[in-house]
Design goal:
Length: 101
């Protein structure tokens, strides 16, 4: 392997470090690109009668927040959207309808 008098290992490490710094310098000099649209998702169970009212309130609040973000141009050049994603329902009726094993 390498002995204490061998200078190949420190020279190789120095060369790798120099190469890494050069690559990082080129990458960090590139301009950042912002997306023009950011989609926010809401994952909630609106079918369960016990919690659907809360879901509607949360959805209305999230829509209002997205409207404020877009109206005030919080992030210049970026528009926000809210997308509702239905969650699996776990209401009592559904649980009792499961087949017996």
């Amino acid at each position: 392997m390498f002995s204490r008098n061998d200078t190949t290992l420190p020279a190789t490490a120095s060369l790798l470090l120099l190469l890494l710094l050069a690559v990082l310098g080129v990458v960090s000099a590139q301009p950042l690109e912002r997306p023009s649209l950011v989609k926010l998702g809401m994952y909630y169970d609106m079918t369960s009668p016990e919690i659907s009212f809360d879901g509607v309130q949360i959805y209305a609040g999230a829509q209002a927040a997205v409207k404020e973000l877009n109206d005030n141009n919080v992030v210049p050049g970026v528009a926000f959207e809210l997308e509702y994603i239905p969650a699996f329902s776990t209401c009592r009726k559904c649980i009792f309808d499961l087949p017996k094993m």
